[in-house]
TrEMBL record:
Needed cofactors: Mg(2+); FMN
Gene Ontology MF terms: FMN binding; metal ion binding; phosphopantothenate--cysteine ligase activity; phosphopantothenoylcysteine decarboxylase activity
Annotated source species: Streptomyces griseoviridis
GO terms for cellular component: phosphopantothenoylcysteine decarboxylase complex
Note on how the cofactor is bound: Binds 1 FMN per subunit.
Phylogenetic lineage: Bacteria, Bacillati, Actinomycetota, Actinomycetes, Kitasatosporales
Segments of this protein annotated with the region Phosphopantothenate--cysteine ligase: 190-400
UniProt protein name: Coenzyme A biosynthesis bifunctional protein CoaBC
Gene that encodes the chain: coaBC
One protein family per Pfam: DFP
Described purpose of this protein according to its UniProt entry: Catalyzes two steps in the biosynthesis of coenzyme A. In the first step cysteine is conjugated to 4'-phosphopantothenate to form 4-phosphopantothenoylcysteine, in the latter compound is decarboxylated to form 4'-phosphopantotheine. Catalyzes two sequential steps in the biosynthesis of coenzyme A. In the first step cysteine is conjugated to 4'-phosphopantothenate to form 4-phosphopantothenoylcysteine. In the second step the latter compound is decarboxylated to form 4'-phosphopantotheine.
Length: 400
């Protein structure tokens, strides 16, 4: 089989050096990569690096090797174009269809999926001109990854950081595997909760659960690769932030509720994959609870946590919002799932069997997705990403 052909566009941002790692990941996993830097990008990383690492010639202008008509051929033959980093300037040119160098020509001739990974200072990213350009590119079917929040060039910190190249590579692999040029969640905002809440007893102890967050992170990662803007409300998950996903860290069920409600008003869909504690300790000891000689411990009094899934199913801030819940059951899995779907009032409920060695922390999952319309979609044992893709297929069909 031919190697998948990837065009790696590199524009003139300080993060250009990180694109060398992205390039390595593509070549080492069997992709044929043609690097097309802009002239500005070569101020940061020279042509020799791109050429040696890709094993292919490198030019910035349309005037080299004209007999091969590179300004048309490179884009026409690509299976994926990824521009990483994408400068504010490059996004503006792409949004307006300018074609004054080899990369911008390639973007106009490509008919394959296109991914942009913007990186710039927060002010440049937040400027209405950039935001409108990003919206235009997304509307036309490009996947524009949200930049990460963190250290920028110099001493500044904020949104605009180039995401982890390993995570960009994961997203690109997914986009390439789907092969569609019109991602079905483009222009949508989805909220995903992941992980397990911890309900503190005292400064050192908590009531928690075994959820690792892997299923929720798989949902966030796959939604981003399908073009969605993703808010991931993450409860105590020790996992790397997926590229293009806004992560909101939370600890307790009450914090998770607040973060989900804050993200909800403009969300098209919400998937509640986090394991949220039903109960929390009735009181919190500000100092560590000590053993007392000759005394049994006090019984632990619990109070109910808010039922977030039922609340957001009943009270949707946006008409047509799709609400998905998860039910982790240990026995009578399907019967309990059907009852829970009715009780909660959500549109879809992903029902899976859990136990000490099942599902929690595992790389694989097996589930049945129940629909309020009576549909039942079984998902056989497989990577958590496969279940995530099925959930988004079912969500996409229900979006208006
Ligand atoms: C040190 C330095 C760092 C820069 N970093 C960025 C950046 O991270 N993102 C960005 O959009 N522009 C950045 N710029 C500005 C771009 O290089 C400039 O807009 C250039 O015209 C982009 O050209 P290109 O889009 O053709 O690559 C930087 C400029 C300098 C001098």
């Amino acid at each position: 089989m031919d190697k998948p052909k990837v065009v790696l566009g590199v524009s003139g941002g300080i993060a250009a050096y990180k694109a060398a790692e992205l390039l390595r990941r593509f070549t080492e996993s069997g992709h044929e990569v043609r690097v097309v830097p802009t002239a500005s990008a070569l101020h940061f990383v020279g042509a020799a690096t791109w050429s040696a690492l890709s094993g292919n010639p490198v030019s910035t202008e349309v005037w080299d090797d004209v007999h091969e008509v590179p300004h048309v051929r490179i884009g026409q033959h690509a299976d994926l174009v990824v521009v990483a980093p994408a400068t504010a300037d490059l996004l503006a040119k792409a949004a307006h269809g300018l074609a004054d160098d080899l990369l911008t020509n390639t973007l106009l001739t490509a008919r394959c999926p296109v991914v942009f990974a913007p990186a710039m200072h927060t002010e440049m990213w937040e400027h209405p001109a950039t935001q409108e350009n990003v919206a235009t590119l997304r509307r036309r079917g490009a996947v524009v990854i949200e930049p990460a929040v963190g250290r920028l060039t110099g001493v500044d910190t904020g949104k605009g950081r180039f995401p982890d190249p390993a995570e960009i590579f994961e997203l690109c692999r997914r986009v390439l595997a789907r092969g569609v040029t019109a991602p079905d969640l483009a222009g949508r905002h989805v909220v995903v909760s992941a992980g397990g809440t911890r309900e503190p007893l005292d400064p050192v102890r908590f009531l928690g659960n075994r959820s690792s967050g892997k299923q929720g992170y798989a949902l966030a990662r796959t939604a981003a690769a399908r073009g969605a803007r993703v808010t991931l409300v993450s409860a105590n998950a020790a996992l790397p932030a997926p590229a293009g996903v806004d992560v909101v860290p939370v600890g307790t069920a009450v914090e998770l509720r607040e973060a989900v409600l804050a993200a909800l008003p403009d969300a098209d869909a919400v998937v509640m994959a986090a394991a949220v504690a039903d109960f929390r300790p009735a009181s919190y000891a500000t100092g560590k609870i000590k053993k007392k000689d000759g005394q049994e411990p006090e019984p632990l009094a619990l109070v109910r946590n808010p039922d977030i899934l039922a609340e957001i199913s009943a009270d949707r801030p946006r008409p047509g919002q799709v609400v998905v819940g998860f039910a982790a059951e240990t026995d009578d899995v399907l019967a309990n799932g059907r009852a829970k779907l009715k009780r909660k009032g959500c549109d879809l409920l992903v029902v899976n069997e859990v136990g000490e060695r099942k599902t929690f922390g595992a790389e694989e999952n097996e589930a049945v997705v129940l629909g309020a319309d009576g549909t039942e979609t079984p998902v056989p044992r497989g990577p958590k990403e496969v279940l995530a893709e099925t959930v988004w297929d079912l969500v996409a069909r229900r979006l208006v």
